[in-house]
Amino acid sequence: MSLYTATYTDLYQLSMAQVYFKKDRHSQQAVFDYYFRKNPFNGGYTIFAGLENVLDSLKEFRFTEEDLDYLKTQNFDASFLEYLKDFRFRGSIFSVLEGDVVFPNQPILRVEASLIEAQLIETFLLNMLNFQSLIATKACRMRYIAKDRTLLDFGLRRAHGPGGYYASRAAFIGGFNGTSNVLAGKNFGLPISGTMAHSFIQSYGDELQAFRDFAEHRPKNCVLLVDTYNTLKSGVPNAITVAKEMEVRGQRLLAIRLDSGDLAYFAKQSRKLLDEAGLDYVQIAASNQLDEYVIKSLQEQQAPIDIYGVGTNLVIGKPDAALGGVYKLAFYDGKPRIKISENIAKITMPHAKQVYRLKNDKGEWVGSDAIGLTSEGSFEVMEHPFEVYKSMRLTGLQREALLQPVMEKGERSFATKTLQEIADYREKRFAQLPTEYKRFNNPHHYKVGISEQLKEERDRLIKLHKSL
Amino acid sequence: MSLYTATYTDLYQLSMAQVYFKKDRHSQQAVFDYYFRKNPFNGGYTIFAGLENVLDSLKEFRFTEEDLDYLKTQNFDASFLEYLKDFRFRGSIFSVLEGDVVFPNQPILRVEASLIEAQLIETFLLNMLNFQSLIATKACRMRYIAKDRTLLDFGLRRAHGPGGYYASRAAFIGGFNGTSNVLAGKNFGLPISGTMAHSFIQSYGDELQAFRDFAEHRPKNCVLLVDTYNTLKSGVPNAITVAKEMEVRGQRLLAIRLDSGDLAYFAKQSRKLLDEAGLDYVQIAASNQLDEYVIKSLQEQQAPIDIYGVGTNLVIGKPDAALGGVYKLAFYDGKPRIKISENIAKITMPHAKQVYRLKNDKGEWVGSDAIGLTSEGSFEVMEHPFEVYKSMRLTGLQREALLQPVMEKGERSFATKTLQEIADYREKRFAQLPTEYKRFNNPHHYKVGISEQLKEERDRLIKLHKSL
User: Fold this and answer.
1) Where would you tag: which of A170, A304, A345, A413 has the fewest CB atoms within 10 A of its CB?
2) Mean pLDDT estimate for chain A
3) Please, what is the Cα angle at B53 between B52 and B55, to 5 degrees?
């Protein structure tokens, strides 16, 4: 199910495209970079997600008859609309692999295509990568703090409409174990799970009977919600009764779920009741406005919670709720391009570039990436991108090129990855990030530097524009 | 384009549905309320949006063969899956009209259907209403402060994936004039608009030539982006040159756009340059991380900005980014139902209910709504829902019933409304809300009370459950 069509875009992309077409500037080659300027959540890293969806959608990228009829009503030129009829994306994409750990101000994905191709895909590319990277990062923060506990996405009802569909996917990449989202489970092959709602028990009035009926007909992975009336006096005792009845049938209750009140307190009290009843295998699931900070607090209190169900704060990526990724022109028609800004951090970096992750002789990440021109060979010094007198020698460090060809002339140049493979890659790469970049408060700043040649080129173009 | 299928749901809805089906509890009638507990943005009101999409989707609500094949792999019962094959929503819905102003703890939409029908539609209903109401409210706050200035949605690239599609719709309901989102324009009939990107000018290097080409091929509603290199020394002077050239051709430049720096300062300086050049008709558009507070500040500074382009903060509904609407069982199988909570504000209200907006003898809103049982006649006193000794006499007040039949037995019971009609209704209703509820800081608290009979019923059920 791809929700993307070629009109899933901003009008100005088409306005610009028409001018490019009419002025015969559209087919010259351009280079655009996708990057962001700040990690979300005041964190020390970002998890890159959404790439597979972008590549899938690009293959399908075309204007339908209906699209063109609509554009006709918006004063587009007939010859331009005729051109759009056969429009396909036939450019190349170099990208960090999905699931990798990335940092601000480094190109994460580079598009090399005709100017019109590169321009027309901008909006949907940003829409998809910004959102999924935001959510994968949020999920990864919870995975980091929840250690080996189970993390489940319950957020669909509070998600931004169908954005919830991709939130479930991104959460899995970030380290979640599954989702309640059936459609995402079906289409992305995600493990799905769920418990019961308060309304189920309310519809019975009789909580014990409600539990009995549920256990009878959904005995596998059965989780009973114990806080509809009174958690410790009614919910947990009734769940224990049903767990015992399940034992007689050779079944096992998977868990009880707490959805309100002081979760640490209720988890400890419930654990005690379950253990006293000989039900040490029955797990405790907790939900209710969880995020990485609440989970951290629960873990520090040693709350005996085995399963965290996370909703709103995961799928909306609270509090940031957006990753401000941008897409900037770096090269066109044989010339490097730059955008000047009074804010030096917003000046763009010209030319096609490669990003290198630096490692020591044991292959361990040293906490720095270096950006160089694709046209230059090895460079031995990297400079701070904005501050003077700050540089670092790269002698003796290994370099892993992060931007790999993923699409060449409109065709995927590597096999589709399963979501499990992407999630595994995220886990492996995240394990290589030193811990000081992972903490929530004042994480260490990961260095991203640029080659001397790139710096010289940027300085040259700035001077050129100031002199005009 | 409906993105919703019957599997766009949480797994637990299907788990519960199976138990209802197997225990023959599924066809008894139930009543569910949709409501929320807190206005977003610490505001004094919420704009209700998303209803038309819900009604449209409900008509299409069904399980496909593919859905059922998938559910088979998830251990669902064969007879239940057979039942789902012909499942349709044939219930009734009573709702506040889309675009109306609503408040916490009042039923906004009431579903009366068989238990299984009401349960299976919960997730998508919450997903759609929560998100669109959030965004319509955010948009309305900006409309309120921007007065008669033009407001445009530019947020698609930062939206939550395809959530951006519905964000554009909701923004229009909330008072925006249009969107850059072409797909939303096409499918919802929204006015679309847009300007140009920095990359357009970068691709030329020569800003003046870029402006000339753009004005030549997109002369209608032409907006030139003036901050790529130097706003006042290059961008505005070049725009003036092109505006003068357009005049010779009998055309008019619509606006220039500022996208960085101090918008108040640059707007004032740009206005001066334009006016000095005899271009007082050329408008000024501004964008860059706008929200209602930035717009308020710009208005207070009398920045001569005619068009606000709002992106991220609109479409993600920052800072809240979610409306916590819930869907609670109030009645089932002939009996009122309740959910108890230690937090008294979370105790649900039993029975089918109606909500009345109270007006004085001139038809002006008095700042109070009253909730009564649908089964009771007129009532003369309303009580505070949670606090004792607080009540209000309703004598002499007019009452407008807010929950109207919008779907009866699965069929829409009123004609589809155009988005323009809904936006007009929003404007009309919002105009009736007294100003003290509209301010951003400490808005007046709109009173929502309950009838004595409803209160007695709730108290009775609480006592009943405590005695069990």
Assistant:
1) A345
2) 95
3) 65
Question: Cβ of A418 under 8 Å from any chain B Cβ?
Answer: no
Check CB contact of B30 with chain A, cutoff 8 Å.
Answer: yes
Q: Write the CB contacts of B82 (distance below 8 Å, at least 6 apart in sequence).
A: none
- How many Cβ pairs within 8 Å bridge chains A and B? 322
Residues near A203 by beta carbon (within 8 Å), at least 6 away in sequence: A210, B20, B25, B30, B115, B329, B332, B333, B337
Q: ∠ at Cα A370 (A366, A376), nearest 5°?
A: 140
Beta-carbon count within 10 A of B61 CB: 19
Residues 6+ apart with CB under 8 A from A248: none
Which residues in chain A touch residue B127, judged by CB atoms under 8 angstroms apart?
156-159, 161-162, 164
pLDDT in tens, A170-190: 999 999 999 999 999 999 999
Q: Is residue A3 scored above 70 in pLDDT?
A: no
Residue A185's closest CA among B314, B71, B279? B71
Would you call the peptide bond into B319 cis, given omega within 30 degrees of 0 as the criterion?
yes
* pLDDT score at A128: 96
Half-sphere exposure of B438 (CA within 13 A, CB side): 16
What three-state secondary structure class fits A58? helix
- Distance between CA atoms of B287 and A12, rounded to whole angstroms? 14
Question: Taking CB atoms and an 8 Å limit, are A316 and B312 in contact across chains?
Answer: no
E strand or H helix at A381: strand A381-383
Instruction: Confirm if A433 and A141 have CB atoms less than 8 A apart.
Output: no
List the one residue out of A275, A276, A281 whose CA is nearest residue A246.
A281
Flag whether residue B418 sits within 8 Å of chain A, measured between CB atoms: no
**pLDDT digits 0-9 by tens, B273-310:** 999 999 999 999 999 999 999 999 999 999 999 999 99
pLDDT digits (tens, 9 = 90+) for A76-122: 999 999 999 999 999 999 999 999 999 999 999 999 999 999 999 99
Domains and CATH numbers, chain A: 11-135+321-467 (3.20.140.10), 194-284+296-302 (3.20.20.70)
Window 255-294 of A: residues touching B by CB (8 A cutoff) are 260-261
